[in-house]
Specification:
It contains four helices and seven strands, in the order E-E-H-E-E-E-H-E-E-H-H. With 164 residues, it is an alpha+beta fold. It has a single domain, classed as HIT-like (HIT family, subunit A). Bound molecules: zinc ion. InterPro entries: HIT-like (IPR011146), HIT-like_sf (IPR036265). This is Diadenosine tetraphosphate (Ap4A) HIT family hydrolase.
Length: 164
């Protein structure tokens, strides 16, 4: 078991944070962005960047080669759906995707939007870590967090309308 401190300051003991979130045991701030039989998308508000989404599998797996055919289809469909509303609703022109198999959680893909201000931290992938660090430490003010929550609601609404 591992102790994890959530963004609201409470601590939980879980085996795997991704399992805890995708099973609904831990509710991410801002709620579920979209959920299917195999995947779960949410914003990690520990990094308050508008439109940043984490897409996690519901099964406790680590690698792409562990995905079933059905999960593969679900994954790519969800990823593209989320990408589409990020563009349409939040005007996000570019997104960085990353995913590492040696995670302490399980299979999850980060979708990190690229904004102008991020250029101060480098041009491309090299800026990712400093950008996330900056967001977590310097952008955690209530005003920005409210903006982020508002953008999550917009994404949720747009994704819901897509389905209808
Ligand atoms: Zn897990």
């Amino acid at each position: 078991m591992r102790q994890i401190t959530l963004s609201n300051g409470t601590t939980v003991e879980v085996e795997c944070l991704s399992c805890a979130i995708t099973s609904g045991m831990v509710e991410p701030d801002g709620g579920v962005v979209i959920e299917t039989e195999h995947f779960h998308a949410h914003q990690d508000v520990a990094y308050p960047i508008k439109g940043l989404i984490i897409l996690a599998s519901k099964r406790h797996i680590y690698g792409f080669d562990e995905l079933t055919e059905e999960e593969k289809m679900d994954y790519i469909n969800l990823l593209t759906k989320i990408r589409k509303v990020q563009r349409e609703v939040l005007g996000i022109e570019h997104v960085y995707y990353f995913y590492n198999e040696d995670t302490t959680h399980h299979f999850h893909t980060w979708m990190v939007p690229r904004y102008e201000w991020m250029n101060d931290f480098g041009r491309s992938v090299e800026s990712l870590r400093p950008v996330l660090h900056h967001a977590r430490n310097e952008m955690n003010d209530q005003e920005n967090v409210n903006e982020v929550i508002k953008s999550i609601r917009m994404l949720i609404k747009a994704l819901r309308e897509e389905r209808e």
